[in-house]
Structures are given as C-alpha cells and as structure tokens.
Amino acid sequence: MKKVISNQAPKGTSDWFPKEFKIRKYIFDTWRQVCLRYGFEEYLSPIIESAEVYRAKSGEDVGGAELMSFMDRGGRELAIRPEMTPSVTRMISQIYLASPKPIKYFSIANFIRNEKPQRGRNREFWQLNFDIFGSTSLKADWEIMQMSLDIVLAFNPPKNSFVMYLNNRKLIDGILELAQADKDNKIEVVRLLDKWQKLDQVVIKDKMSDLGLKKKGEKILFDFMESGDLESLVKAIPDLVDNDGVKEIQETIKVLESLGYKGLVEFNPAIIRGFDYYDGLIFEVFDKNRDNNRAMFGGGRYNGLAEIFGSQSFPAVGCAPGDETMKLFLESWGLLEKIISEKKDCYYLPLLAEELSDKLFGLASKLRKKNCNIELGFEVQKVGKALEYANKKGFGKVIICGEDEIKKGLYKVKDMLNGGEEEVKI
RNA sequence: GUGCCCAUGGUUUAGUGGUAGAACGACGGGUUGUGGUCCCGUUAGCGAGGGUUCAAUUCCCUCUGGGCACCCCA
Asked: Nucleotides on strand B with an atom closer than 7 A to protein CB?
C-alpha cells in the first residue's frame, strides 16, 4: 500500500478557495479603506521574529506553549509571529526619535498560535492592527475608538447589531485601591472581574472573598459591578471624583456621541481586557446577535509597554480586529450574502467551433489589452453548454462569437443576470 | 493543558453482526446557436490498527482526524 498523504490543510489552518477568498478580501479591503481614511500608513513586518521577543512579554500561553518556533542553521530560535505588537514596537523603536509624531501605522497580516481550534479561533488567523504611537492625547484614544466603530459600520450592519463597551484601567485601579487589595492579588481580582458576566456571580464573590479584599471595599466593588452606574458610583464614593479614569470615560462617551455614535458606546465595568499591559482607556466591541453574542475585538491604551523592549518608552494606543470574529459577525447578520452572490467581473468567451480558435485567441488578447478580464474556452462547446458553464462558474457576461458573428464582423455580449444581448463590432 | 461529541462516495447524510441506499455535485446525454427549473445515464464510499465473532462498516479498545466548551485570546 502506498502511503496516502492527507489533502487537508494542517490543523487549525484553512484553505481559502475562491469563494472564501472573496469574503476575506472584502473584509480586508474594507478595513484598509477605513485606515487610509484616517491617514494611517500601511506597514508589514517579517512573518518570523526572534522567539525571545515573545517569550519575554507575550505571556505563558501566547509566548510559550502556543508559540510555533524553530531553530535556524545558526542556532537562533525563531518563531512565527503570534501577534503584531512586539514587531511593530520593534520597528517603531528604530524610527521613533527621528519621526514626526504621532506615528499612525496599520497592517493586515496573518499570525500563528499553536492552540486548539474552535469556533471563531484558528491556529492561523489574520488581524488588522492599527496603532497610534507618540501621543498621550485623549484624542488619539478617541480616534482609535472611532475607527473601531467605523470598521464595523463600513459593512453596513443593521441598527442595534453591535455595541462598544468602554472602561478605564485607571478606574479599576482606583477602586482596587479603595478596596485595599494586595498588590499580589490585584491581577487575580482583575481576572475575576473580567469574567463577571461569564461566570456565576456567587462563585466570583466566593473567590473574591478569598483574595483578601477589605469588607467595605468589597461591597463597593460588587455594588459597582452590579449597577454599572458610573454617576451613582461617584456620588457614593467621593474619593473617585478626582479619578482620571472616571473623567476620561465620561468625556469619551460625550465626544463619541457628539460625533454621531450615540447608542453605540456604553460604559461597562466588566470590560477589563486580558492583557496586563493596558493602563488607560480600554474597550471591546460586541456582537449583539443572540447566536453570536461575543466580543469581536478590543483595544486600548498601553503606554507602559514599549519600555519592556529596552528601547525608549513611548505612548501607544491601538486595536486589533481578527478576521474570523469579524466574519462571524457578518454572517450572523447576513451581511455576506450580497458579496457571495456577486457575479465575477470576467467575460466567458467559449470556443463555439474549432476553426474559430485563432480568431478567438486574437479577440481575447485584444479585449485583455483594453483591461477586460476574459476566460477563453479550450474545448469546443455548444452555446447551451457554454452558458450552463458560465452560469455555474458565476460569470457576469458571456461573449458569443461564432461563425455567424465573425461573418458579420461582430460579437454578442450576453448579460447573465437579465439575459439581454448587445452587439459589438470587432 | 482539561472535558464532551463526532467519523459512511467529492459534499450532506440514511442504514445494517451476513460488506451499503439517497440527495446534491462532477461528467455525458435528452437539445448539431442560447443558461439558471426538468428528465435519463455515468462516476464514486464504510478514517487506520487491534480485539470479540463462523462473519465487523455495525460491538469493544487504541490511534489518527474533525467539531465544541474551558483556559487564554482575535
């Protein structure tokens, strides 16, 4: 028995056949358009980086077990990138001092994380990364958030189909301080808060009690998480009046609403973000569809991150939507059907008789020079079969050019949608 | 890393302890110059290994592959 090699794509990756490619291209093109509209410049980094970059900062999973790494011939350990932030930070650190600020960069790239695939998550995935470096202004945060909303709106979703939840790490820090959490437990508390809406709240409260929060602080925290009402929280806890986080949240919502995003932005105390490096405004964009009720993507400010790489520290705020979650959103609201059913922007030119071969090759060449896309038939077909073929392959137009047409010095262009024909002189 | 579910033509699936049927697809024809609906034909399958058995696609085990949830994240 011959050894049979599987024709399946490697685990966690998927082949993009033309139908799928069309969808991804539509998503990427739309993303790119929004980024360019905001004056962002496109960049790309190598698909591999020194593995130590990720081992140093990407955390136990992304930078450890899930890292796809290998040795080169010089004994250097390299890794296929699992995220963009280290690479773009590395790139920016080369040019930061010499560049006019702010630096606004975006990229659309693929990544590999060696994990168990499931709905909305593969080993290979694509992300749009857009970041602003070198600005501490809240306006930079607002622009990133505005873009995040525009990136969804650009697909023409129905009203009330998604929402951006907003929070601020400074507010969380402030509350934790009031609750007098041990520093060691702080990350644990934040992790639990992150799961506020996912887990049974009794369980969370039990676990929280084990983390040594002061009774009074604990009550403040729970009341806050339950009500999610920023105004009454501030009233109840005068200490928070001066908290920058509160001010930034309030101002951000006001600004975005005035920009026409009313109803799309809400404060939500349960938005924490898993990454530890966030240190200011943070947000997550949610699909509101019941069948796909999930965070699509998120982002926020991470001023403290750059210094981890040993270069000069610089402020940053950014966001990274993934292709898979975006596609699920579009599917859940039926926003891809139009794209899928679009006819190919290509003419089919069947070979109706062998004697016409030379003439049709010539015609195809002539039309291609005029920027028409042409598929020329190789085998002789009857008109009926040719139309059936064109129909199955989704051609928008068919050029009918047989002996009769050649004699008359013309060809017919048939529209496959309405069946109409048009005569064109050769 | 943990847990659960699944495995039959190219695809979606039915079914059985005595080796399998359908639909769709592809290809050809009905129709020697007009498609999307119709009719006919052709094509092609029990993931791998082991066990139980006279006999396994079916029951059991292992592996492989796939899916989902958790962890984490896009």
From this structure: 1-3, 25-29, 31-36, 65-74
